[in-house]
Design brief:
Helix content is about 75%, strand content about 0%. The chain is mostly helical and about 210 residues long.
Length: about 210
């Protein structure tokens, strides 16, 4: 591990101990979140579980800010613990800052579970996972308007994913509709344009 990152981890761990002694609740939560984020980047997954267990032991899960289950869900997803990650993403409440990101990752998690099933011959299960992902994304787009640049970026990813999922299910009309929601200024526009062309070809509209 990079020596600078190791030093930061040690310093933050010491800070957590001090904050526990001083009972500084807000600073303690932020410090533990930073420890989780650094452990995520450095692949120290055993520490992630330990730090999150400290959070759950000290606070009720319902009293934790939405960013905590969102960040923990990302660490679970990274480790291939898809079902646990899904529960974590879905616990992020509507109206919170990470809601759109959490719903997008919940949909992506369903897609990955579905693809794993498809590879083992469970085609019907995969199709149901894709449909669940579609429902999650469409509901999220209806539930909450984007507020930040990150929100707008994830909304475009949602439309790109919806285009791909409808394509996979042979639903070419809805697929094209979602691809066309992606603006020309988007970094994903070239992908959407390429994929919508193939959708027209697949549907013999040329």
């Amino acid at each position: 591990m990079n020596q600078n990152i190791r030093t930061i981890l040690v310093c933050l761990a010491v800070l957590v101990v001090v904050l526990l002694a001083l009972n500084c609740e807000v600073s303690l939560k932020d410090s533990l979140l930073r420890l989780i984020a650094i452990s995520f980047v450095t692949h120290r997954h055993d520490q992630i579980d330990r730090y999150f267990d400290q959070l759950k032991a000290r606070y009720r899960e319902t009293s934790l800010e939405p960013k905590f289950p969102y960040v923990f869900g990302r660490t679970l997803y990274r480790r291939g613990k898809y079902k646990e990650a899904l529960d974590s993403f879905l616990s992020v409440p509507r109206g919170s800052d990470p809601y759109l990101q959490a719903r997008y990752l919940a949909a992506v998690t369903h897609v990955n579970i579905g693809r794993t099933g498809a590879e083992s011959g469970k085609q019907e299960e995969a199709a149901q996972r894709y449909r669940t992902a579609i429902e999650l994304l469409i509901d999220a787009l209806k539930d909450q308007q984007p507020k930040t640049d990150d929100d707008y970026a994830v909304v475009e990813l949602m439309h790109l994913t919806l285009g791909r999922l409808h394509y996979e299910l042979g639903e070419f009309g809805p697929s094209v509709d979602h691809y066309q929601e992606i603006s020309q200024s988007s970094e994903w526009f070239d992908h959407a344009l390429y994929e919508v062309c193939w959708t027209y070809v697949k549907n013999r509209q040329y």
